[in-house]
Amino acid sequence: MTDPFGLEGRTYIVTGGAQGVGRALAEFGIEKGAKIALVDINAEALEQVADEIDSPNLHCISANVADETEVNALVSETLGHFGDLHGLINNAGIVRAAMAHEMSLETWQQVIDVNLTGAFLCLRAVGQALIEKAGNGDAAPGRIVNISSDAGRRGTIGQINYGAAKSGVLGLTMSAAREWARHNITVNSICYGVVETPMTDTIRAEKFRDRYLKQIPLGRFAGSEEVAPATWFFLTDAASYVTGQHLSVDGGFHIAT
């Protein structure tokens, strides 16, 4: 039977993969036959993921996505281990909450470094590899998905650094999509709402929960397993003519008043 996803045997890098959404994304890809280089700064957590998934199609790499040298090295390691590369899910991100008038420059910069500069570094390194493949006559499509957020489309309260970074990811997506279409590389973004993950647990007070739940038409937060299929759509052959797009997977939050 023909693989309807077109992922069988293809190799993808997934960043921020030691827990939550990143891990769910990796598990979904492996289930569909993809090979995954799973990247996270937390080496110990990655080891646990590797033990629990226990698949030859998973290779874990500890790296800081905000470090240019480490990003270039992780792409080289992926190519060395799997022998090929077809795309990227740019998922790594952190949260450092504070109101704008109380936020330190350090707190601002930490989030920008990981969520925006890190996304750029990974996109650039993977894009360079995919463009080189295309130049060598490899007709396989390149696929990049950047994980943004509704915070980047609507703004947010208490996380101006996060909202600014995720808004920047949308511009990054559209610009790369325009530049790299000539190389048969598509670049799209997913805008998550609130997903039940360890990261969001750190900021989820009852006041936060109540305020956001009232704005979500579906009336609940997403499970990480619910956002993975929509994300992977952009990496499948079904999305071969889709680029520069932003898809909200948020229970309707972006249309709520």
TrEMBL record:
UniProt keyword Transit peptide present: no
SUPFAM superfamilies in alphabetical order: NAD(P)-binding Rossmann-fold domains
Span of the signal peptide: none
Gene3D superfamilies associated with the record: NAD(P)-binding Rossmann-like Domain (3.40.50.720)
GO molecular function terms attached to this record: oxidoreductase activity, acting on the CH-OH group of donors, NAD or NADP as acceptor
Pfam families membership: adh_short_C2
One of the GO BP terms on file: fatty acid elongation
Keyword field: Oxidoreductase
Domain Ketoreductase: 10-198
Family assignment from sequence similarity: Belongs to the short-chain dehydrogenases/reductases (SDR) family.
Protein name: 3-oxoacyl-[acyl-carrier protein] reductase
